[in-house]
Design brief:
Number of strands: 11
Pfam families: Glyoxalase (PF00903)
Order of helices and strands: EHEEEEEEEHEEE
Shape: globular
Number of domains: 2
CATH architecture of the largest domain: Roll
InterPro entries: Glyas_Bleomycin-R_OHBP_Dase (IPR029068), Glyas_Fos-R_dOase_dom (IPR004360), VOC_core (IPR037523)
Protein name: VOC family protein
Mean pLDDT: 93
Length: about 140
Amino acid sequence: MSTNLRPFHLAFPVHDLDAARIFYGGLMGCEEGRSSSHWIDFNLYGHQIVTHLDESRASAKMTNPVDGGDVPVPHFGVVLTIGEWDKLAERLNTAGIDFVIPPTIRFKGQTGEQATMFFTDPSGNALEFKAFADDSQIFAKD
């Protein structure tokens, strides 16, 4: 894995910009960048995410089975360090987030073992944050 990764950019719809600002800026601790009455840029662990207003936004309900859990699709997130992941899990638990899949270890004792958690934003966009004790496992194959 390259140590010179560039930030990714992801734009996605939300039904309420004020709710997005509270969720991403407040709860998730993302620094807010530029904004307008129709979109807001946020810094998500060094990556640029942009919430675009779509008042008719309906959340997707598709899932796929992964290691005994029903993983929401689509979803996005960041691979954190274990320390960052622990802090985020604690902050979300303290805030009373209703997890889709609560903080857990997936693929325990197998290739790709990872700490993971899934939750949704106020518009129903699914997020996954994960961490590996050994980053060489991020793209490891059986």
